[in-house]
Design a protein that fits this description.
Elements: E1 4-11, H1 14-33, E2 37-41, H2 46-52, H3 58-66, E3 69-74, H4 89-99, E4 104-110, H5 123-126, E5 130-136, E6 144-151, E7 157-162, H6 167-182, E8 187-192, H7 198-212, E9 219-224, H8 225-234, E10 241-244, H9 246-258, E11 267-274, E12 281-287, H10 304-317, H11 321-336, E13 339-340, E14 350-351, H12 354-367
Helix pairs in contact: 1-10, 1-12, 6-7, 8-9, 10-11, 11-12
Bound molecules: nicotinamide-adenine-dinucleotide.
């Protein structure tokens, strides 16, 4: 079996607690299924700052660059509130995203049937929901120049942020949306604001052109991003893959996330371009949640977002589709069986801690082997 290099960065707070449960599944896959994962572990965030005074060391950065995939827990916490800005825990995460050139952020919003009743929307609107928001992550208004606040000298200041996109940035995220849609229900909805923004006009044109050049088997629709936000809460199941820019993606993915309940349920992937020789993409997988200092060390964090991040890694970095399906199925099964961590607890269910939840998912996964 081919060696698959994983670089593991558990981080701070509940990061390492949730990570330990995910790690048991990797170890099981190595020992029982000869998955051939080669594991190395490093430090990131506050843990890295405590060890070497920076939020990720150059050595660990090199290991991340050399790995087939990085799996990341969470960083941050009040302990590091007063460290210098450049060494704050989140800087390690930003450095990883930047140096690995992870331009595409995949945030699935899946509503497990067992949790549909606890969504803020009506059960029938979210039951069985399975959409994927693809957000451009390295361009747009968060990075464009100029980005300034100028004193106008008359008691007024002027703030400028610049929304800027080049053709290649839209082409590569558009192409990725079509490729991902082919592995799902084959539909892409592209969202921008072409009615009021030049970057929206170009976004719309380039996505349409990219579609014509080799992706016409995929259904493409366009929607203004504000209408898209409305449709996401009105009838979320109409979507399959939504592709959008950095700013709109930031907001729309948070809206979609809340359709499915707790932060403790949400995985994500960030991908870069394929290597011209090996064809492998740089990739990092992480839960959407942070280090949750309010519950860290109590053994009550929900490990599902972390475990579902491993499922995304199996699917997108290693094409281990059967194992990814089984792992996601095991999460659904354990929820069906009534197990709940505190964040998703409801009447009549059985409340468990991080370790019990992780071990129940592992046992279900092990039992599901053919
Ligand atoms: P958070 O996601 O850590 O927590 C928000 C709320 O959700 C908390 O009440 C927490 O207890 C709960 N929660 C989150 N994950 C949970 C889980 N798996 N199980 C059960 N409950 C869960 O966000 P925050 O409180 O705004 O930030 C805390 C720290 O995390 C800060 O230092 C922040 O900068 C950092 N942060 C890091 C990341 C990251 O590493 N990617 C992301 C967001 C925030």
């Amino acid at each position: 079996m081919a060696n698959r290099k994983l670089f593991l960065l558990p981080g701070d707070g509940i990061g390492p607690e949730a990570f330990a449960e995910m790690r048991k599944i990797i170890d099981h896959m190595n020992s029982e299924e000869s998955a051939g994962f080669e594991l190395e572990e490093g430090l990131v965030g506050g843990a890295a700052y405590d060890a070497h005074g920076e939020s990720i060391s150059d050595g660990d950065m090199e290991k991340a660059m050399a790995a087939d995939a990085v799996i990341f827990g969470a960083v941050g916490g009040p302990k590091w509130d007063s460290v210098p800005y450049d060494q704050r825990p989140e800087a390690g995460l930003l450095r990883l995203r930047k140096e690995m050139e992870l331009y595409a952020n995949l945030r699935p919003a899946i509503c497990y049937p067992a949790l549909a009743a606890s969504s803020s929307l009506k059960q029938e609107l979210v039951d069985g929901l399975d959409i994927l928001i693809l957000r451009e992550l390295t361009g747009g208004v968060y990075f464009g120049d100029p980005k300034t606040i100028t004193d106008l000298g008359n008691g007024q200041k002027r703030a400028v942020d610049t929304q800027v996109y080049d053709t290649y940035e839209i082409e590569r995220i558009g192409a990725m949306a079509f490729e991902l849609a082919r592995t799902r229900s084959n539909r892409v909805c592209s969202m921008e604001k072409r009615n009021v923004m030049k970057s929206g006009v170009l976004w719309n044109e380039v996505v349409t052109e990219t579609h014509k050049r080799g992706y016409e088997d995929v259904e493409l629709t366009h929607m203004l991003a504000d209408a898209g936000g409305m449709q996401l809460v009105r009838q979320p199941k109409q979507f399959d893959v939504i592709v959008t820019d950095n700013l709109f993606g930031d907001m729309l993915s948070d809206i979609a996330a809340m359709l499915t309940g707790s932060l403790g349920m949400l995985p994500s992937a960030s991908l870069g371009s394929p290597d011209p020789i090996t064809k492998k993409r740089k990739a990092m997988y992480e839960p959407v949640h942070g280090s949750a200092p309010d519950i860290a060390g109590q053994g009550i964090a929900n490990p599902i977002a972390m475990i579902a991040s491993l499922a995304m890694c199996l699917r997108y970095s290693f094409e281990m589709i059967e194992q990814a399906d089984r792992l996601e199925g095991s999460i659904a099964q354990v929820l069906d069986d009534g197990l709940r961590t505190g964040d998703i607890m409801s009447d009549g269910m059985t409340q468990v801690g991080t370790v019990e939840m992780g071990e129940a998912i592992l046992a279900t996964y092990g039992a599901s082997a053919a």
